[in-house]
Amino acid sequence: MLTRVRSEPQRAKEHACQASLELKRAMRDVANEFLCPTFSTEQDWKLHLRSGIHREDASLTMAAFGERGGLNLGCHNSSVDLSAAVVKRAAIQQDAVFHSNPERRRVARSRKRPLWVMKFGGTSVGNASCIGRAVEIIRAATRDSNIVVVVSAMSGVTDRLIEAAVLSEAGDRQQVAIILEELSNQHEAVAGALIPSPAERSHISCKMQEVFREGDHLCQGTMLLRELTQRARDTISSLGERLSAPLVAAALVDRGVASEAIDATELVVTDSFLGAPEPLMEVTRERCEARLRPLLDKGIVPVVTGYIGATSEGVLTTLGRGGSDYSATILGAVLDANQIIIWTDVDGILTADPRFVSGACTIPEISYREAAELAHFGAKVLHPKTLGPLMQSDIPVWIRSTFAPERSGTKITPSGSPNGGGVKALTAISDVALITVGGPGIVGVRDVLGRTFMTTGAARADVLLVSQSSSQNDICFVVPSAVAKRTIEALRREFAQDLAHHNVEHITLNQSAAVVAVVGEKMQGTPGIVGRIFGALGLENINIIAIAQGSSACNIAFLVAKKDVQAALVTTHREFQLAS
Ligand code: ASP
Ligand code: MG
Known about the structure:
By secondary structure, the protein is an alpha/beta fold.
């Protein structure tokens, strides 16, 4: 395991930094008490302050306002009175803010206006008319609730940007220029169709051109180096969200909804494992409270870029493809939202992928765990990590279609539908690799299991399924194809000595299998389910390569050849009559 050893001075520096953060936070909370949502100008504030607030609070309030509003308040900003009374007051205030989770939730729920996070996926902001539809949905919701919007890039844009990044590494100057030109035209056309005011349109156009210039510089740099670094790849692929968020915000403003586009690099703080970063929830909470809450209190709808975050040093990171769902639940969790709605192009979570199973239908209510299993095992509707930030909460997540907003879609709740039980849904994931570490010699390598999974952990490879025979000849497990190369390389390094001495005979990769997962909260206590699955598959002559049950009680997963996936899904769907 990697343990980072920090030196004394480093630790002291971290403490000092933490203390100053805490003081800042406390000061902001004191200031918050006096912030009135309707004050938007410096003049309003001065009037308010003259009306008799104690000087120490006033200077803090002004300082906070200066910090938030970017106003140059001159001496006010620097003359913050840190007298003992203020510091004490700040400390009390600070304690009051750091409640336990349930307490914080209770306070959040007692707010006058509920808070909803609404995420719009790529197809839901895919062109001007889709954005128009999304804007109408947001506008209607603002009547009763405060709304934080999270947007993906317009559909297909991230793919094109990644293509440009890869072509830059190959030195294909011409193709890269064509892609950037096409994307620029596409976004300009959408701005033209959405925003009638010439002044607003030229403003947004300038912003977008700035983003394209940055993209162009990064591609040029990559072409020069002939190397696509993870940072450059992340930054280039983030441009789509940085274009769609200002477009959606401008369209909202045009329809009379006060709105501001916000780059999630200001909000979502992640660790620095480039390529697979994890969010740091507590710091993210502080950032969101400081940046979003004042906007919400003023009735402004923040439109936040999905998919991206930044390390605490400000290096942009991405949350993985399809990561805007994850952005939405990170924001929903830290802001203690009342609900999260993921607007997409399908009508909720279905019993199976309708492209494979014609009778697949929408599931009205499903549990966090069931939805997490389905997402983990390839149900495209949700990013695999979406439910992670909510596991300690009770925030409902809705999956709804912007193309059929009259339907209620699927509701994901902590415990799912009360009368549920048995098999709820099926999913399959073909984009996987089966890795086997084995050979007769591994019986004698006592720590082989530990070392294998330490290695997958260090490579941040999600292990989807593990199977091992009791004779211990082989350990086989499944990881997403995208991480197969780095996982197998890491394993070969880890077991280099053992391979040389034939204690471990082979570490192999099989890319021709797929995982099918059968998901349902109460399957564990229902005898006969496994028998029915494999009986039905046997009758259809479908061979099972490996099986795993019980990592979570609500999932049975098995491996079949890629060519058998559809037949396995159709057969299991029929066996459990999921279409009815
Ligand atoms: N735009 C990103 C992607 O295409 C993130 C997302 O859409 O959720 O992967
Ligand atoms: Mg998506």
